Amino acid sequence: MHNHFNGLKTAALFGAIWALLLGIGSLIGGGRYIWLFALIGVATTFYGYWNSDKIAIRAMHAYPVSEAQAPAMYRIVRELSTAAGKPMPRLYVSPTEAPNAFATGRNPKNAAVCATEGLLGLLDERELRGVLGHELMHVYNRDILTSSVAAAIAGVITSIGQMLMFTSMFGGSDENRPNPLALLAMSFLAPMAAMMIQLAISRTREFDADEDGSRLTGDPLALASALRKLEAGVARAPLAPQRQIVNASHMMIANPFRAQDVSRFFATHPPMEQRIARLQRLAGGPVQH
């Protein structure tokens, strides 16, 4: 069990989003159509999950690198994947000044790890090892599957919310039909709640990857130091919140946008100070610069 009960938190959040789904589904035709929306949402998300490596890499315009092109990155990932007893993922570099990294792929055999040129130029090898350990644990913990399931359920809820809005405005005069004002309110509130729960799951998985990655590398302070540099680096060179990048941003080790563009409630990542504090406690001491 993780020190901060992140597994239990994720299970509780999944329970909450399922309860929300079933609750609003009961408002439509006695719940008879809920599985139609579920099927559409799951099918769409399965496609995204199966092609997640291609989608994220395309969004960041990343290119594959050889061992001769990125010797330190190859050496670190080979050592860490061997230590974890897992296959080595494909390695990519994104021609982006903003420092960041992400891992994607549907399983350890079909995974990719990508770092931006900005990150490779910013971190020393010890810090890079901490970041790559974090990214590998996203793959080994099957976080892509977790986020895909959460996105599927949130997508179903959003679809139902849109149907509730239509029903509230254009529904018939059936006396058994729920109050149209209640339906209209639910059509706005349910998708909002689903999105917030989905983001909370994403933030929880970041804490897990921090802790598990630090255990894999044996150096939590290296990751803490890297996160400090990443926070400052993103502030200097943030990415524009374009749709493709927004859709892939939850995979990145740091929020790639300006702090003022993302409120705390709608952030895909926990605050950096919280992540660094947890890593310090894991190491039993302050960050070493």
Task: Walk me through what this model shows.
There is one protein chain. With about 290 residues, the chain is an alpha+beta fold. The chain has helices at about 5-25, 35-50, 50-60, 70-85, 115-120, 125-140, 145-170, 180-215, 220-235, 245-250, 270-285, and strands at about 65, 90-95, 100-105, 110-115. The chain has a four-stranded mixed β-sheet with strand order 1-2-4-3, sandwiched between helices. The model has no long low-confidence stretch (mean pLDDT about 80).
Task: Record the SSE blueprint.
Elements (H helix, E strand, L loop, with lengths): L5 H20 L8 H17 L1 H8 L3 E2 L6 H14 L5 E5 L6 E5 L5 E6 H6 L2 H16 L2 H28 L9 H38 L2 H17 L6 H6 L23 H12 L6
Parallel strand pairs: 2-4
Antiparallel strand pairs: 1-2, 3-4
